[in-house]
Amino acid sequence: MHTRLIFILAALPVLFVSTGVSAKSFCIDPGHGGSDSGAVGCGLIESHLTLNVSKQIRDMLKAAGHTVYMTRETDKDVGLSERANYANSKGVDTFASIHINSFNASSTGIETYCYTGCLARKDSSYEQASKIQSQMLAVWSLTNRGVKDANYAVVRETNMPATLSELAFISNCGADYTYLSSEAHLKEAAQAHCKALTAQWAGGEASACSGGGSPGGDTPPSSSTGKVMAGTFKNSLDDTSDANWLGGVKYTIGSQSQTSAASKTMMTFEVPVGSFTATASKDGYNTATRTDCSPAAADAISWCSIALTPVAAEPAKGKLSGSVTDGSTNAKIAATIHLNGANIAYDGNTDWVSGALEPKTYTVEATADGYDKGSASCTVESNKTNPCPITLNPQKSTISGIVFDNETQAQIAASLTLGEMHSSSTETTKWEFVVDAGTYTITASSPGYETGNKSCTVEKGMTATCDIGLNKAGNDARGSITGKLTDSSTGSPLAGTVSVAGESDFACDASGIYHFALNPGVYQVTGAFDGYQPNTVECKAVAGETTTCDIALTAAAGESRVVGTVYDASTQAKIAATVHVDGQSIDYNGQDQWSIALSPGSYEFTASAAGYRDGAKNCVAIAGKDSECHIALVSEDAQVGALEGVVYNEDGGFNDNDEPLLPLSAKVTVKGFDPVSCDSNENGVWRGFRLLPIL
Predict the structure, then answer these.
(1) Cα–Cα distance between 77 and 647 in angstroms, integer?
(2) Residue 351 sits in which domain range?
(3) Residues 103-133: pLDDT tens digits?
(4) Fewest C-beta atoms under 10 Å: which of 105, 147, 541, 552?
(5) Within 10 Å of residue 420's Cβ, how many Cβ atoms?
């Protein structure tokens, strides 16, 4: 009687299917797999959990009489497009992708996605997502993060309705971990998906989801057993000759272990029906594991032999040796060598020699007073001493100062030249040149003044102050030509270059203003800026007077494109987002780069993404070029702070009120943010950049 009762209960699902509605076809997509483990947290791995739940959904749907396809049934790599193409090739009724969320320890809850725009369309994908979200919340007491839309590849590239489930947060070791670490709760998640899918596509066969399904682990519960037979071999399973058999190997399945004899031995294990993991190990060989063997079936034999490869013999060690030289003179210099966690003193004479090292390529660094740090990539070979010379460049030095009126001692604006280099100063700021140590002649010029020169000496790695005084020119001697370099269409100033034959080019700053002190006469003045067509105007210099000659430039012909990415400000990872500029929107997939064609000019770009605060960045489109524009977004859950500071000449130090004695005007930048300015009249203080805190 007991046997008959078991037979009747086992047959009930078959009777239910035969009298129910028409069968449907489903594609279940376990997220990640193989080398892509997905998120990891609290001792759990996303790719393992998604395969566990997906297998149970598969078994439940099959038990209800439906056709089920899986994008993967083992722990292997499957590309995003490959998953969608597989579902499309099978022509299934619907597609469901299973994932586990991750962000930080306090993030929690359940959310379900359909393709961008589904929330407004209220289409079949939205209905399926809503049912999954509702069924999950009915079995797992976690935060309802809602149904959302997103531009995920597996819901974008599938031809049928499709959803992507984020069951819980693997990064939350509290409530979310309680559900993710329990086989019973994982089965609840599988049942919730089965109920949602059958309710959406099969007329509400929810009762068919109460049973069936088995955990996706190694040994699902079963009252039946099967046999596994295995041998162990050297190097490869392709050669099963007697000479290739390997004895003395410990072979383990679950809690069972056997050690093969020294001669040819086939081992037999009795295991529960289902998938299993087998491991083999032997001294002197690399341990090997197999998860791809055929599942054990009731009263049947599954074969699962394993091949072991010998542990590679440790190669003989070698050494490195070399000298350190000055990059400008090629002379040997004393230095300290930093290699493999050890420091080696080099006296600048006899070559340094390392200790014994493993054969591989090392990055060897050298440091010396007055020099920038240098490094070399050097390879160690067994039983050899290989050369490893390193060159150090002398630290750069700085010459800085002001230009002043010799009569009044008042600071004046001027243009400075040192060989091919140019700089400028104003009534409140200094000029500056970065050079190697040595003696240099600095030339200063200013409208209404005679040109002046001064010889200045600076030591290696130091800053030398070199103020230059100018004498006023006679009124009948020279005149001034000045003006502004601008964009012809917008009137915006351009930081380009203005040139006059026989004179040093004038490098404009952000104001676009230039000036020359010239002998009386008519001059051709040419303005130029990257991405614009040069323009020449005719100007007349009048003794003792200032002539204004503005120069407008027209953007060069050719398409201007701006390309870029959107990324997480904390992790630096690219994220899918929508970019807005000049009334246009760009859907960015978070993988390569977005791009857009614009007229030359400056634009404000904004970006938005689900779960992130909106971000913005000012970027410039240059005619005939691709300009980069990368936008950082901050998570809605992230806490932010601000940065501020001062820019000053370190020679001045600070007063008793912690204010710099020589503040400087400057721009301060942080990657992903527009620069902020500070003014020497405001003690060089800058403020800005709302950033994620970083420990």
Answers:
(1) 51
(2) 319-392
(3) 999 999 999 999 999 999 999 999 999 999 9
(4) 105
(5) 7
